[in-house]
Write a structure and sequence with these properties.
This protein is mostly helical and 157 residues long. It is built from 5 helices and no strands. Keywords: Signal.
Length: 157
């Protein structure tokens, strides 16, 4: 017969399983109760959350616009410019969604500036380098950046 220290600890494994099972049941039972206490947000909290979301989306759009302006001329071409334009377009769509109900967001000016950039990117020749494309697009990128900055200022990000 084995000494007690070398015997498999079946009882302790069962006890540990029960402990984890009990803790899991308690946690799943307590979480819904904790959520019931403050489920309703006040209008002020909802408005603050909406502004915070809008500010985050504006920051993302501004960062991706900066990436478009700073393409590496040795590694990038017109297709990279168009891919980044699509990223900016996706950011703009998210921004439009988060700006619903906020009249002072300035999203219309950002959309108009993006439309100018979109048209300018479509007019780029296929064999243009990223450096020349960035130079051609710089006025449009600057206009978009100014529109984003104006929107951030009007929302007070």
């Amino acid at each position: 017969m084995r000494p007690p220290l070398l015997r498999p600890a079946r009882r302790s494994r069962r006890a540990i399983r029960r402990l984890f099972l009990s803790a899991g049941l308690l946690a799943t039972g307590a979480l819904p109760l904790a959520g019931c206490a403050g489920a309703e947000r006040s209008p002020r909290e909802a408005a603050a959350a909406a502004v915070l979301s809008l500010c985050e989306d504006l920051g993302t759009l501004r960062a991706d616009t900066g990436r478009l302006a700073g393409l590496d001329s040795r590694r990038s071409g017109v297709y990279d410019v168009r891919d980044l334009r699509q990223v900016v377009a996706d950011d703009l769509e998210v921004l439009r969604t988060s700006a619903r109900g906020n009249d002072r967001s300035g999203v219309r000016a950002v959309s108009e500036a993006y439309d100018g950039l979109h048209t300018a990117v479509d007019q780029l020749p296929h064999d243009i380098t990223a450096d020349r494309a960035a130079r051609r697009l710089m006025p449009r990128l600057e206009a978009l950046d100014r529109a984003i900055a104006g929107s951030q200022a009007s929302v007070r990000c």
